[in-house]
Amino acid sequence: MIQCKDIVKIYKTGEIETTILKSVSFQVKEGEFVAIIGPSGSGKSTLMNILGTLDVPTSGDYFLDGKNVAKYSDDELADIRKNKIGFVFQSFNLLPRATALRNVCLPLVYAGLDRNEREERGKEALSRAGLGAEHYHHYTNQLSGGQMQRVAIARALVNRPSIILADEPTGNLDTKTGEIVMETFQELNFQQGHTIVLITHERDIAEYADRIITVRDGSIVEDRKNTRKKIGIAGVDDRQKI
Amino acid sequence: MKIIDLLEQTFLSLLSNKARSGLTILGIVIGIGSVITMVSIGQGASGTITSSIESLGSNLLMVSPGMARGVGQQVSAGRGGAQTLTLADANAIADQIYGVQAVAPQYSTRAQVTAKGANTNTSIYGVTEPYAAVRNVEIQSGSFITQAHNGSKAKVAVLGPAVVEDLFGEDADPIGQTIRFNNMDFRIVGVTVSKGGSGMNNVDDVIYIPLATAQQYISGDDKVGMINVQGESQKLLDQMEIDITALLLERHKIADETLADFQIMNQADIAASASSIAGTLTILLASIAGISLLVGGIGIMNMMLTTVTERTREIGLRKAVGAKKGDITIQFLAEAVTLTFLGGIAGVALGWIASLLVRHFGNTATQISPVSVLLAFGVSAAIGIIFGYYPAWRAAKLNPINALRYE
Ligand SMILES: Nc1ncnc2c1ncn2[C@@H]1O[C@H](COP(=O)(O)OP(=O)(O)O)[C@@H](O)[C@H]1O
Ligand SMILES: [Mg+2]
After folding, report:
1. Which of B401, B405, B406 to mutate for ligand 1's pocket (most ligand atoms within 8 Å of CB)?
2. Cβ of B321 and A89 within 8 Å?
3. Between 3.90.1170.40, 3.40.50.300, 3.40.50.970, 3.40.50.2020, what CATH number should domain A29-59+81-241 receive?
4. Which of A242, B197, B366, B397 has the fewest beta carbons under 10 Å from its own?
5. Tens digit of pLDDT for each residue in A187-204?
């Protein structure tokens, strides 16, 4: 469970201090699918980095499953990321000279699993993310954008994290592919019970979530329930098209 | 993270840029290779020096005429410059000094020697029978100068192998033939075993004749050029040196030791100073080579810094999926150490080949010690760690957010 209390983030550039997040407080319960929406530059990515423990707040508390991680050391945060969090980035961030499977297995290398176990779990994650088995051993720079994002989603799933954080996952994809990727997220949430926090500046994309938090200039301006645009299971057939 | 995964990852990333990895390794190969070669040349030289000092004989004191360097005197008269030692001095040493095994006085000159039309300019040593034992001269055929030869002032000669070659050709047996110098004919009675050596002190390029013959027909007096004294043991040499000094000062009626008209060289001292010279030579050669190793190390650092910059996003991603600082540090250190280690192996091979080539074509003794090979591996691994550490540290401290954003 995610619990943010009065989170403030200030960036210092030389003498100038800029407050990016101004006392943000909210909760995300286990199994929720939340979209955080707001215009570019409003502080969404900054917030996601804090939720993902890639960064720490300047002040305020961040409770993850009841523990205040705001004051954790770098290595303790690395352990949190390894065990609880999966990331999906706008620009995929795949290793170009490695196969799809190898990319997916990367987090398991740091978890200390041996090769056979890694590959087994990697293939399982790839199939859940909807990548055809014929692509497992392709180098990632030979894949299409949609396929690359599936590999990235599989990588986020492979550690069996409780939370998946996705920052503009459809930003580099065409509309159709973006929709299919969103359906995959819905499915993961609906069928596997993953907590998903999705960041986007597109209202259409946010509509896939069942709660929408709107951020403007570093503050939450709206937090409402949403009726899902589609039920996740509907995407199953489309998946084969990308 | 498991070691096997670390190794696999290291090789994959080094192979992904073969040309750059290869060139960086080359820097280390040249560095380690030249250290191995240079040290082998240095140690070869020191081996040559040591064995040539040992071939002088053992437990040896060499008394030679000339002024010991006194206060304010920078110049000492060269050996043989002033003939101040006599046969009587040699006999006195043999009779009166404790610990003497044998005394071998020696008269030295040079002469133009002819035989059957061939001729050569060589050293003539007038010696007595003990000389062979004292100075480690071995006989290949015939016999050495005997007491009887000296007693009868016989015109006989024992030839060094280089002289035989010059006068009679290689592998000739000159025994019984005659050579001529100083208007006298000498009958050849023996040939010595080759000791090697070169230049002015080539002990193979020598003709030995009886000392008495030399004094009677060549010098015309009883002076000797040098007195070789062999002690019964190494331990006695220092005391013998003091005793001989006192004896000769008294015999030459000199009160002030700084004005002595002779000097004594102790073989152990010569060996010590020669081996310190050889040691200095080795260090000098090794440090010249060490500079190229340093340059190789800087090459590693340069490559690793470039790699870290190029792979900033990868580092950010690895951190995002749970890599700790230590995981990142070890990954980049492993790459640097692998480069230097591979370079070390190739460098040892190269150095080995180079030192064999030097031995073969350069006519210089070389000696590869296992210590220098082990040291080379140690040094190359250390270079990887030292020069790889800074880039690895830079990689590990990258902020994951900035690293992920990096274009
Ligand atoms: N490391 C940083 N240093 C200084 N300013 C930053 C840094 N990261 C982000 N910002 C600023 O914070 C603001 C919010 O950025 P971000 O969270 O990326 O917005 P969003 O994801 O909503 O587009 C932007 O104005 C950006 O320039
Ligand atoms: Mg953003």
Report:
1. B401
2. no
3. 3.40.50.300
4. B397
5. 889 888 899 999 999 999
